Amino acid sequence: MQNILNDIAETIQAQKQRGVVADYIPELAAIDPKQFGIAVALPTGEIYSAGCAQQLFSIQSISKVFSLTLALGKIGDAIWQNVGREPSGDPFNSIVQLEKEHGKPRNPFINAGAIAVVDAIMMGHEPKEILAEILQFVRYIANDSSIAIDEKVALSELATAHRNTSLAHFMASFGRIEHAIEKVLGVYYHQCSISMSCEQLAKAGLFLVSEGVNQSTGRRVVSAHRARRINSLMMMCGHYDGSGEFAYRVGLPGKSGVGGGILAIAPNNASIAVWSPGLDKLGNSMLGTIALEMLVQRTGWSVF
Fold it and tell me: Taking Cα atoms as reference points, which of 206, 197, 212 lies closest to residue 275?
């Protein structure tokens, strides 16, 4: 495995086309696009990595997997009353479908859906309480108490929040947001600004590898049934309108973030995290996708 990752990292570093960083968020626009990291966490607890696998980065929309898991634990299938489970086929920040579908987001991984999930888990509590709960949960599943929120990134997102604010107001106009919009968005932006390395992120995904149990710690996070459901949503919706292409090329449940990270799950085999800040035209890590495609070709881990 280490030789495979070394080969992938060497190949990726030689790539000339690296995509474009998310320049609409000032803090992300300043990140060096030449960086690349990859980590593979096995159910046994072994971790293999290459490149900048210990470099912290903003996980952005990958956090939506964790907030959804938390929401399912808190309110169960009631979450689906205000969020759908279908691929969107549209950009992650699109408002078009919300109007057609009466303010109900198509799935929990587009921005509108993730905002609705945050609203659902607040349950009358203040933003600081919910953020502490989300952060505690991420630390728990990664078995790492050092994981923190990057406040500079969160403030940078708040300063450029016009589209997401519009999405939240649009949903509220249909009665689908219960809490004050500024509070919901404050939680959402801080959630997206959780800072992790590839190694930490790979460990955080281990519960989805082994039917809800992180075998390296012995902790059951969710039921086997729920783990399969989360994986299925990652496969169908985890890369926005590029989910079909990712399934075709990589063949694993995955969730991307505009910080350049991707969390991919190879059921029964491994949790994989890659990071390369340059994005393709759909907002997914260009070289991260290539690296995962190479890994699957070498390991045979595709679910297909």
Answer: 197
